[in-house]
Amino acid sequence: YSVDPRAIPSRLAYGVGTRLAAALLERHLDEEGRYPESVGLVVWGTAAMRTAGDDVGQALALLGVRPRWSEENGRVVGVEAIPLEELGRPRIDVALRVSGFFRDAFPHLLELLDDAVGLVASLDEAGEDNYVRANGTDDPRLFGPKPGAYGSGILALLESRDWRGDDDLAAVYLAWGGYAYGRGRMGVAAPEAMRRRFGAIEVAVKNQDNREHDIFDSDDYLQDHGGMVATVRALTGRQPKAWFGDSADPGHPKVRDLAEEAARVVRSRVVNPKWIAAMRGHGYKGAFELSATVDYLFGYDATAHVVQDWMYERVTSAYVGDAEVRKFFERSNPWALRSIAERLLEAAQRGLWAEPSPAALDALRSALLEAEGWEEASP
Q1: Collapsing DSSP states into helix, strand and coil, what is residue 243?
Q2: Which of 250, 271, 275 is nearest to 262 (CA)?
Q3: Any alpha helices (H) in the chain, and if so which ranges?
């Protein structure tokens, strides 16, 4: 009851989505001197409920399409193409990875987005003005997990440690998410279509509409967005642009490189002494949160390659090298310290942490042995 699904995207949300699309295209134009031909976008149901459809609005705006709203009740009754003269740029192709919750809560939006793609594909326009037509009109553009399933499978693979590189990550991401959605196809297996569409992605984007959460406080970000980046890399042999759309201030949305966002979150929260002290006040659960943060940081680096060596060094210093924090782990949750040490050592072993300092490695090995001793001594 928090939102009228038929009123998504609202006029305001479409406006925010239009600004997000403009910021994305402006950044790409500045960096590459041209527009991207295909953008990959992660779409979640929770965000759609909070914003009334910012992400949906962005996808429509990239396509050069706008909703038609009923004047009586504000509900969306269809879509219409924005004339090229008014649009002032090519229509950008999109490939959407929708969450299981979005699929369940907003099936009509899957149809609306599919209608928008179909409309753009049907326009009598040159390929240089219409990248959907240039890239081929037969493939679906909306993909998600199998009906009744949720997630992307990436987390389980990372936790198993039974993976070697991008090909393994992509195989799982494609297997879990290779189901096409849209009008008349609600979960049709389409792994080859997904491979083609994701292989064309130049920019992989995930938006965040609030400052209550960040990319290292949940595994969902690394699974859906990081998994998309790893899949594109496996399919093409190149690192796509991985960007983060920030619409916490909806009037002035920003688009940052994911590596920039990772650095911002590490500095502002992950190694912030005030945040660490606050977690220490929560005992066992606080220690678990510290451990989970390291897992999410590692996972995003494994998938999207966005964590720099200095971040690993700072985390090691703050979580393992600080004597007071070590005492906190001993008292509250030695298993959390062991998990942190194991994960950071794994980052070094896999080359994600390319040049760890000898002091950091020594501290991690010492912490691992110490934590194991605490566990054995515990009743």
Answers
A1: strand
A2: 271
A3: 11-32, 45-51, 54-63, 84-87, 100-105, 107-122, 131-135, 154-160, 166-177, 191-199, 219-221, 227-236, 258-265, 273-280, 283-304, 309-319, 323-332, 334-349, 358-377
The residue to which tokens 């093409």 are assigned = 236
Q: Can you give 283-305 as a three-state secondary structure string?
A: HHHHHHHHHHHHHHHHHHHHHHC
Residue among 290, 228, 293 nearest 258 (CA): 228
- Per-residue pLDDT band for 375 (boundaries 50, 70, 90) equals low
How high is the pLDDT of residue 40? Answer: 99
Dihedral sign, CA of 283, 287, 288, 293? positive
3-state secondary structure at position 379: coil
CB neighbour class for 12 (10 Å; exposed up to 12, middle 13-18, buried from 19): middle
Asked whether the predicted pLDDT for residue 1 surpasses 60, the reply is no
Between the alpha carbon of residue 123 and those of residues 77, 84, 89, 248, the distances in Å are 20, 11, 15, 35
Task: Give exposure, 265-286, as e/b (b: 16+ Cβ within 10 Å).
Answer: bbeeebbeeebbeebbeeeeeb
pLDDT per residue as tens digits for the range 186-242: 999 999 999 999 999 999 999 999 988 999 999 999 999 999 999 999 999 999 999
Calculate the CA 98 to chain-centre distance. 11
Q: Are 110 and 186 in contact (CB under 8 A)?
A: yes
In whole angstroms, give the CA distance from residue 28 to residue 23.
Answer: 9
Give the number of other CB atoms < 10 A from CB of residue 347.
Answer: 24
Tens digits of per-residue pLDDT, 273-319?
Answer: 999 999 999 999 999 999 999 999 999 999 999 999 999 999 999 99
What type of residue sits at position 194?
M
Q: How much is the mean pLDDT over the chain? A: 96
For residues 373 and 352, what is the distance between their CA atoms, to the nearest angstrom?
Answer: 28
The token duo for 181 is 């959605």
Q: Nearest CA to 63 among 102, 113, 109?
A: 113
pTM, rounded to two decimals:
0.95
Please compute, for residue 94, the number of CA atoms within 13 A of its CA located in the half-sphere on the CB side.
30
